[in-house]
Amino acid sequence: MTAQTLGVGVIGYGFMGRVHSNAYHQIRRAFWPLSPDVRLVAIAGRSQPAVAAAAARFGFARYETDWHRLIADPEIDVIDICAWHDVHAPAALEALGAGKHVLCEKPMALTVDDARAMRNLAVEAGRTHRVAFNYRFAPAVIMARRLAADGSLGQINHVRISYLQGSLANAEKPYPWDDRTTGVLPNLGSHAIDLARYLVGEPRSVFGFVRNVHPVRPLRGEPRRVVPTTADDLVVASIEFENGALGTLEVSWVAAGRKNQLTFEVNGSAGSVYWDLEDLNRLHVSRPGGRGFENILVTEPADPFLEGWWPPGHILGWEHLHANLIVEFIRATGSEPMAETLGATFEDGYRVAVITEAIEASSRSGRSVDIAY
Length: 373
Description:
- By secondary structure, the protein is an alpha/beta fold.
- It folds into 2 domains: 5-134, 3-Layer(aba) Sandwich (Rossmann fold); 139-279 and 281-316, Dihydrodipicolinate Reductase, domain 2 (2-Layer Sandwich), CATH 3.30.360.10.
- It is 33% helix and 26% strand.
- The chain has helices at residues 15-30, 48-58, 67-72, 85-97, 112-125, 139-149, 184-199, 318-333, 346-365; strands spanning 5-11, 37-44, 62-64, 78-81, 101-104, 129-131, 156-164, 203-211, 216-219, 222-228, 234-241, 246-252, 261-268, 272-276, 282-286, 293-297, 369-370.
- The protein has a 9-stranded mixed sheet.
- Helix 4 runs parallel beside helix 5 (112-125).
């Protein structure tokens, strides 16, 4: 592609591949003129019929059944990794080695060693790199961060972050990912950890409980056959931050009745903020002299990212957070990045991996673990 247009290749056509593909189309409409512009060149996936259908449906010029060929394509400047977690590190390392910009879904890597290698190569290659922590890009979350950072809340003392789903609450439900073991900590927990750092700062130590509530489940496709599962489905962790604040993280796939509830509350000496993903356009703020929490609808033109969207009061949805994330990433590849850097880099992804591993180590040992990057 030309310097004014970036060719995009997406690895993975499932849920997140569909979300990211949609976002590339949205940003060309909402943030026009987009600089640099983007062109959807190719999408990769293992199943030829499925990836061919995805290419036609999502608007790609062509498709590949081998992601190595996608990375080698000279028309592609950006590699967007939406495949399963075990693909993230090898695909990112190969793409960076080929001189591509890389956007990688979370968790960035399955091990700290892989995350460190990705971070190091990204810095060495001088390419733009981001991890898709989309909740950073809700305008109300950005406002909360600004209030915490500029002193409006006073000294930050306490934070609580909770990400709850109930998809695996029923022990009779088959494990949904066959032989691809994963867990709630790298999945939902990576978002919670990133928000903790984004809102409050660096952790000093963690104490964690990592549990597998249902260690056996029916096998998918063979409901009468019960098999062991090793993936964690419930995690509770305490955090001590370098600035003295204390925090708690709760992430669960066994919270019956919850669909996708992510909330946080940050308490300072002069005020507090509360946010709920299920009402993502509102930030609840407590200020000195108030009578409790003020309910702020964050949809004004001057609010973060709202210049590209709708008039005041016309709310954004979950998919718009990915569009905001991707437009920041695309602008960062060009000569005019956004004034406020919001995107999580591979350094951020590496630090999330370190904290994730520390929570797991604490759960095994029953002791607090210091964070060392």
